[in-house]
Amino acid sequence: MTTPSTEQSEGKRSTFVTWRNRIIAGVIAAVVLWLAYLILAAFIPRWWAQRLAEMVGSSFAKGIWYGLIMGAVCTAVPLFLLLAAGLSWRKRGGRFIAGAAAVLALIVAIPNLMTLTIVLGDSNAAHAGQRILDVDGPGFRGAALAGAIVAAVLFLAVAFLLMRRRFRRHRAERQRNQPEKPSVSPETPANPPEVGTN
Question: CB–CB of 64/139 below 8 Å?
Fold first, then answer.
C-alpha cells in the first residue's frame, strides 16, 4: 500500500523525467535546425538565383513582371491564410483548420523567403546569388519588393474592414442583450412626497 508521501515523490519524479526529456528533445531539435540552416544557407541562395535567372532570361521586362507576381502572390496568400487561421481558431474544428492554413501559408511563402536569403544574406552563396540576379535577373528583386508592399497594404485594408465589421457586430449584440433601463414618466416625480408630511 502506497502512502501519500510516496505518491507525491513518484509524481515529482515523473514530472522531472518529463521535463528532462522535453529539454533534451528541445536541445536536439535546436541543433538539428541550426545544422539544417547552415547547410541551406550555403545552398539555397545560389540555387534559387539560378532558377530565377533561367525564368527571367536576362529580360528586364520579365524580371519586373515575374517579380511583381511572385512578390504579391507569395505575400498576400500567406497573410490571408494566417488571417483565416486566426478567425477560425475558436470555431468548431478551428484548430485543425488553423494549423493546416498556417502550414499552407508557410509553403506558399517559401519563394519570398528564398529571395530574402539572397537579398539579406551575408554568406558567399548569397553574394553569388546577388551577382547572378544582377546579370541574369534584372529588376526582379525591386519588383518583388514592390509586389510584397502592395499585397501587405491590401491585406491591412481588408483586415481592418473585417475587424471593424466584427467589432460593430459584437457591440450590437452586446447592446441587444443588455436589459432595458426602466424609464420614469415625466408626470410623476422620481421621489413622490410622503403622505402626512409638509
Answer: yes
- Tell me, what DSSP letter sits at residue 137? S
Rg (CA), the chain: 30
Low-confidence ranges of the chain (pLDDT < 50): none
E strand map for the chain? none
Nearest by Cα to 53 from 130, 119, 144: 130
Contact 58, 138 (CB under 8 A): yes
The CA distance from 98 to 121, in Å, is: 31
Cell numbers 541562395 correspond to 45
pLDDT tens-place string over residues 151-197: 999 999 998 998 888 888 878 777 777 765 555 555 555 555 555 55
CB 140 within 8 A of CB 52: yes
**Amino acid letter, residue 144:** A
Cell of 179: 436589459
